TrEMBL record:
Name the record gives this protein: Putative transposase
Gene Ontology biological process: DNA integration
Pfam family, one: rve
Keywords assigned by UniProt, alphabetized: Plasmid
Record SUPFAM superfamilies: Ribonuclease H-like
InterPro entries (UniProt xref): HTH-like_dom, Integrase_cat-core, RNaseH-like_sf, RNaseH_sf, Transpos_IS3, Transposase_IS3/IS150/IS904
Source organism: Salipiger profundus
A molecular function GO annotation: nucleic acid binding
Lineage top rank: taxon: Bacteria
Residue ranges of domain Integrase catalytic in the record: 110-269
Amino acid sequence: MVEKDNTNLSIGKQCKLLSISRSSFYYQPKGETALNLMLMRQIDEQFLETPFFGVRQMTWHLRNDGHLVNEKRIRRLMRLMGLMPIYQKPNTSRPAKGHKIYPYLLKRMSVTRPNQVWASDITYLPMRRGFLYLVVIIDWYTRKVLSWRISNTLEANFCVDALNEAMAKYGPPEIMNTDQGSQFTSFAWTDRLCRSGVRISMDGKGRFLDNIFVERLWRSLKYECVYLHAWETGSDARAGIAKWVAFYNHKRPHSAHGGKPPAVVYWLDKENMQPDQQEQRVA
């Protein structure tokens, strides 16, 4: 996809055209052993089934499967993966010191139209010899994936890039909901939303179900795509994710809307909205 020897386009410009961050293109496998990568894969799979497992429960689970591991190792791996048990927050989901935390706005709210509420989250992507991180932005009502990015770090930049793409394509939502991770409490993220008149909503601490639709998306993505492949490079991962997202948005039936794919519901509802609804903003 990216041609290193292309004299007309720099690698940076090629990455921008392909929506790949330069850090992902230059991705090199992390310095984890094959055993740790195998454990991370098993932790990831188990966490989808039991998101309430903390370090102790996950350690016991792996020991019951025959792995000689201690809590110290599992704690480090879960933090590295950015996993967030329901009842606690690892470092990757803690707000940075001094960052503002916003209240959760969706409790008892009726979400009835596209662009009323968006949600975003980050997940771990296993590779053949390492791992990456994936951020997505979805429309809460239709479940459509509006944008996404992959990165080999948990810095806020790739999240802001995904947000900018979604807002450029679809306009700003009324509300953006995320967890309290440092990426989403960062000035770059919150300032972009505030300048666009978007109300910010953040999950209660340790509240897995507050962003349930993104969690369901992760489950579908991983079982239908990620776990079926062993990607070698960031470009391979991006191509695989892009293919699955296109399938999910345009062809995969969704039970929430009578079997219609998310993109079909999104555009049908947008067309049926009255002009005053399309312009409605939450004060």
